[in-house]
Design brief:
The complex is a heterodimer of chains A (about 425) and B (about 450).
Chain A: E1 3-5, E2 13-14, H1 21-29, E3 35-40, H2 43-57, E4 64-65, H3 70-75, H4 79-92, E5 97-102, H5 104-109, H6 113-119, E6 124-127, H7 136-151, E7 159-167, H8 173-184, E8 189-192, H9 218-222, E9 227-233, H10 238-247, E10 252-256, H11 262-276, H12 283-304, E11 307-312, H13 314-325, E12 330-336, E13 350-353, H14 356-361, E14 368-371, H15 375-382, E15 385-388, H16 406-430
Parallel strand pairs in A: 1-13, 3-4, 3-5, 5-6, 7-8, 7-9, 9-10, 11-12, 11-14, 12-13, 14-15
Chain B: H1 7-11, H2 39-47, E1 53-58, H3 61-65, E2 87-88, H4 93-98, H5 101-115, E3 119-124, H6 126-130, H7 135-146, E4 150-153, H8 162-176, E5 190-196, H9 207-213, E6 216-222, H10 227-230, E7 238-241, H11 248-258, E8 261-264, H12 270-284, H13 287-315, E9 319-323, H14 328-338, E10 342-347, H15 353-363, E11 368-370, H16 373-384, E12 388-391, H17 396-402, E13 405-408, H18 419-434, H19 438-442
Parallel strand pairs in B: 1-2, 1-3, 3-4, 5-6, 5-7, 7-8, 9-10, 9-12, 10-11, 12-13
Classes of the chains: A alpha/beta (about 425), B alpha/beta (about 450).
Chain lengths: ~425, ~450
Amino acid sequence: MAEVIHKRVKPLQVNPFKLSQPMGATLAFMGVDNCMPLMHGAQGCTSLTKVFFTRHFCEPIAIQTTAVTDALAVLDGGDYSIVESVKNICKKVTPSLIGLHTTGLPETKGDDIAGVAKKVDFPLVYVNTPDYEGGFESGWALTCKAMIEQLVAPATRVNDNKLVLLPHVSLQPIEVEKIKDFIESFGFNVLALPDLSSSLDGHLGEKQAALSSGGIAVEEIKALGDAGLVISVGDSMQASAGALQKKNPLMRHQHFSHLQGLEATDALAELLLAETGFSGPPLMLARWRQRLQDAMLDSHFSLGQTRFLVVAEPDQIAAICQALYDVGGKVTVAISSVDSPQLEKIRAKKVLVGDLEDAEQLAADYDLIIGNFHCEALAHRLHKGLVLRGFPNWEQVGNPLKNDLLYEGGAYFLFECANAATLMRAHLAAS
Amino acid sequence: MSQKPKIKDLLNESACAHNKTKKVACNAPTPGATTGGCAFEGAQISLFPYADAAHLVHGPMTCIGSSWETRATQTDWPGRDLTQMGFTTDINLNDVVFSGEEKLRDAIDYIMANYAPQAVFVYSTCVTAMIGDDLDLICKQAAEKHGVPMVPVHAPGFVGSKNLGSRLGGEAALRHLIGTREPETTTPFDINLIGEYNVTGDMWQYAHLLDELGIRVLATLSGNGRIADIRCAHRAKLNVIVCAKSLISLTRKMQEQYGILSISLSFYGKRDTSNGLLAIATALGDADLLKRTKQLIVREEALLDEKLKPYRRVFAGKKAVLNTGGNKTWSIAAALQDLGIEVVATAVKKATEDDREKARQVLGEDGVLMMNPGAEQARLIDERGAHLLLAGGRSLYTAIKKGIAFADVNQEKKKSYGGYSGLLNLAEDLKNSLENPVFKLVARRAPWQK
């Protein structure tokens, strides 16, 4: 299908859009109510991450650092800084959970965080997320898996009405909410892990939160074991689903590589119909399906003559490329932040693991860019169209409410891309 | 002998007034109760604005993946602005185990072949410092191979705070750049601007005034800077420290090595801009220059006062809380007072002892100096009935939840508030914020709430 280049060939990254594992872990912990993510490393990793998410979500971000300094960096096994951090955090706030995750520094010196975690007398989930391995997507996925392994109580019975949703890292808060709504409209009780839909959706809370407010409760996570069905979205989440099934072998699992476009959404609806025995979906879903079909026809003129560059995390690339492919959009280049088996399945002419310098060098191959805020400078310099997606997007407001999924979001996504492509052609014709 | 700067020496800065009384680093971090950046970030800040140099970060992804293209530092360098690019070796597990030196060498070669910068700054980070990659050797060999300066910057995050990192950045420039080239000409009024990063073009708010007075900016560290210029910086008559004291070690050493005097000032607000210009003229010690400077100040202040008139009515009786760091703790406070706004509190947590004293002078007896602004600012807004919060972006939400006006005065700000004309920008932004009906409207109760 596509030409896939898994390995980077350069000795460096130039204009990277790759993000680190610890950052993905931080974000996952933010999907837990009343949680304090605690990043184990020097203070800069945390500071940069805090600023990054604050600007992206336009929300206050609670996060702390173990602030490892040089003497400790060499001598200590992490015990002091972690234990001390928990103590200092609890002086000010009372989290329901502390989410301990590592950076490259303690991993290089070989801190045994599992050992330290045992000494800490406080609800805590630990996860190894060195930033010299993996990336944003894997950091999120590892954290989700760690929460399941360390918190969920084993169960021997299932509640068929209870459903666990495991969303991948690139789903914005409203998208998680829309998937939950979709499934709930069939009568299920849905719990998402992690759940950004209520913690980082941009709501105006009563007070300035020193901890995450909203998200799945720790008690709810502990009790996930009796869910009848788990639905994972994004290939990065398969391992988490596996971990959950280990807690209860009776639990069934359905996987979706993504939920973007008509076919994927139909597949979800089909599953839910089969599960419930309903003869048809709720009226609103049927209405939105018709609108998406119409949107596909309305937008295919513009999209069918457009060549795309998509830069994102692997699971998001797979989703976007499928949605564009369905209406004749030609993704000529897809650039992934990291390597992933998912790349083989991506609907694109050329798929590579790379950076925005690669994108620049392939500029002749595409007209419109779908990617993060760093693509703005690229689009400007190369006179390309632009649709902003992914992390970070610092220049626009409203990121938590951007919805590309299922029938409804799918329609809006196609319109936005088609309009951006048309506008770009108008600009080119005028210049 | 090791080329690495001695951290202990930098922490024990003799030019800092308070160094006799302190045994530990300024702003030593507390695990679990710390905000603010690391040494790597500080080094970046002090060197990044050289747009004609490549800034190569030798480390894993967190260090630069989340932080390139974040600073609105401006330049008129006609080539590609390398400040707005991210270069990193993005080291992986293999490099951690077997060393990242070969990758670093290749990365420098790649940058030289494709971007031809005037210099390459090579930043060590926590992981590459721990695995012991020899930056000094690689930089030395690369400099010989490519014929341009290769500057190792030894500021891995774990050595300390952002402030210390800025010092280490200054140290790198001193060791590897300053004094390595001679200027084509010199003038009696050559100065260096130290610690001015030209964020949102702050420097350009007053550079034209220096120009008019015949004062030449020989080099900057590092706003709108050029590598060729900073290499000549040792021939300046005066070092002007524009921002926080983090580069005080650098200026002290330049005084010791090259006999260059230094002064510290601010270009925020009317009074400070005027005082700053006067201080430069005084330090350069030329009677005619001093006379011309005074004339220019009279002219500029009159122009500004005229333009500020319509704002004074809006600001009458208004109170502000200020949460920022360094010399901004008092310089922006003074600027607000210039606008007729009462400053009820300012944060001094991230300020030096000198800056704290200065803040006390500016705010007077009634003003609160916040040592723990994160916790204090919300309470003070209530207690003092403040109408405005000026801070960095992370405090925006304190203002929003309190329903008061906010202005970003830190690194993510969008507009320049420097110099005489910057004060007008600040006045306009604060006026727009104060008069915005949104705060009342969002506080409105829902029809279903009693």
